[in-house]
Known about the structure:
Elements: H1 28-46, H2 51-63, E1 72-74, E2 77-84, E3 87-96, E4 108-112, H3 113-120, E5 124-131, E6 138-145, E7 151-157, E8 162-163, E9 169-173, E10 176-181, E11 184-188, E12 204-209, E13 218-222, E14 229-235, E15 242-248, E16 254-260, E17 263-266, E18 274-278, E19 281-285, E20 290-292, E21 295-297, E22 302-306, H4 307-311, E23 318-321, E24 327-334, E25 339-345, E26 349-357, E27 360-365, E28 373-378, E29 392-399, E30 402-410, E31 417-421, E32 432-439, E33 445-452, E34 464-467, H5 482-487, E35 494-498, H6 508-512, H7 520-535, E36 544-549, H8 551-562, E37 569-573, H9 592-595, H10 601-607, H11 612-615, E38 624-630, H12 639-650, E39 655-660, H13 671-689
Parallel strand pairs: 34-35, 34-36, 36-37, 37-38, 38-39
Antiparallel strand pairs: 1-2, 2-3, 3-4, 5-6, 6-7, 7-8, 7-9, 10-11, 11-12, 12-13, 14-15, 15-16, 16-17, 18-19, 19-22, 20-21, 22-23, 24-25, 25-26, 26-27, 28-29, 29-30, 30-31, 32-33, 33-35
Helix pairs in contact: 2-13
Amino acid sequence: MALALTMNAPAQTPAPDPHLWLExxxxxxxxxxxxxxxxxxxxxxxxxxxxxxxxxxxxxxxDSKERIPSASRxxxxxxxxxxDAEHPRGxxxxxxxxxxxxxxxxxxxxxxxxxxxxSEGENWVWKGAQCLGGRSSRCLLLLSRGGADxxxxxxxxxxxxxxxxxxxRLPEAKSSVSWIDEQxxxxxxxxxxxxxxxxxxxxxxxxxxxxQPLAEAQRVxxxxxxxxxxxxxxxxxxxxxxxxxxxxxDFYRNExxxxxxxxxxxxxxxxxxxxxxxxxxxxxxxxxxxxxxxQRWPAGSLLVGDAAAYLAGKRQFTALFTPTxxxxxxxxxxxxxxVLIDVLDNVAGRAEAWTPGPGGWSRREIQAPFPGxxxxxxxxxxxxxxxxxxxxxFASYTDFLTPDTxxxxxxxxxxxxxxxxxxxxxxxxxxxxxxxxATSKDGTRVPYFIVWPKDARADGQHPTLLYGYGGFEVSMxxxxxxxxxxxxxxxxxxxxxxxxxxxxxxxxAWHQAAVREGKQKSYDDFIAVAEDLVATRVTSPRHLGIxxxxxxxxxxxxxxxxxxxxxxxVVCQVxxxxxxxxxxLLAGAxxxxxxxxxxxxxxxxxxxxxxxxxxxxxxxxxxxxLFVTSTxxxxxxxxxxxxxxxxxxxxxxxxxxxxxxxxxHGAGADNAQHADRMALEFAFLWxxxxxxx
Length: 693
């Protein structure tokens, strides 16, 4: 007799999972299994003749002192976190504004993380700093054990370059913390039962005063247990100070509340729109079409309006950006009086500066290198009264064969000035890049990039690596990689990067086409690119490998199971794979807006068709597979990779498995670990796809 299912009934109880014990992250049995798999896999991969040299070269690239020191502006300084061979954990340091552009700035050391780790017997990994700014010298440092997302929060004084005795401090947790002033902060953290959402993020926000036990802090905001998280947003702009609380309903929808004199005012906006204040103005970025006050604004638009009028209920806006079939909004930032906009034009970057005036807003295109990846970032600090960089911004440009160059510009006009450039880590002479389009199963044109090695031609014999992601609005823009250039296309390999649906390359519609019941479109697009590579003789299935991580690891598992005939090597990094249980593991519940809820029968009906763990079978010739994950990944549970590897090994498939015992979601805690992981991956790819030259 058939089982009747109501719309919200739980899915049928799955068969017992014999590998459930591998979800015990640090259990003795699970870690013994991990060590056995590592011991079996490493010798195979290390046997490749280029492994040791690649690892050494990759680490040297990561440690190079000629890299551009990424900088964030606060007050009178640029701040940088730096890692190299002598400082694998890293240095937090700063230099005055007028020194940064010099070839060798003089850096003031604020914190030596290696020395701190040694003195405290901890494996600290830097996760950033929250500084109050203005005249205050106080910061909250976020330190992770082994690279996990969970951090320890400790107050630090820039003036004394030391931690504050009896200062604000939080034990290890996935915390959210924001300064109100030197005497009080807004904090969400694990304070016991009910304080976290089902996704493991803060649910309750507390007003915590200096010297007060956290248990006595005032509860000021809370989200629902089924939400992703609660958070606070504090704007310290003089004259426009604001505190907002955010209830993240899911990954793409939120509610915002303005907090004034202890009262909460809910802001009326589309749930999936992002809203921010900019002094006397409000900015909204739309994910869906919005018709308001007789005007229709298309999804993907950026709107600006008067903040006071908006709070009074008026809905009059100017569109600073509206999308087209090929142009999408990649991001924006604000100087003192202008809005900088980054645009993707057929997956190539452009930038614009918008200026308000008596006659409305005027647009100026910023002249910059093209095509490639271009991003701008305002340098204005609104807490500096007479800010010398009030209209200043950084612009960064790169592409697959061009090392990153950092430019400085003025939003009011003038040419960009190159101030720093990364050196070339490989010889790109004779190499070339082209953009092509494949046709997916439903007729959609899917762009992809090909990076050709020197003297390459389409003969079907080239070792080719196809990379993809396809989720969470993340665009796969061109990047410069000394590692790939050295260990892959510098040695004759072809790199292909697919811009499949689920990403953000063409705005919200491109992403939304491949979520929930549409997720298969990501896999169809990726398969279409692979088929196009074979049809045009870029490569052949014998020489075609694929790589992806996190959501991209799910992509690898799905397309491998669906089309094992297309590939000869799969590198599956920190993946999701068991989609029946993903929402119960670590942060998995926060992604249900992307994938659906497998506890609902109607959702499991479409998830079950692609979930790799449930669909992989014995008796099917599969490409050889390398799993890479991390024990300390507290975002995507390592149990996904462990269980999939165990199941495939039982089924008789060829599987290699490597799990870093630390390293977090990036699968490495320092440059040595990152270089080691990459060298293992390249060794695997060359072993499978063709002999290294």
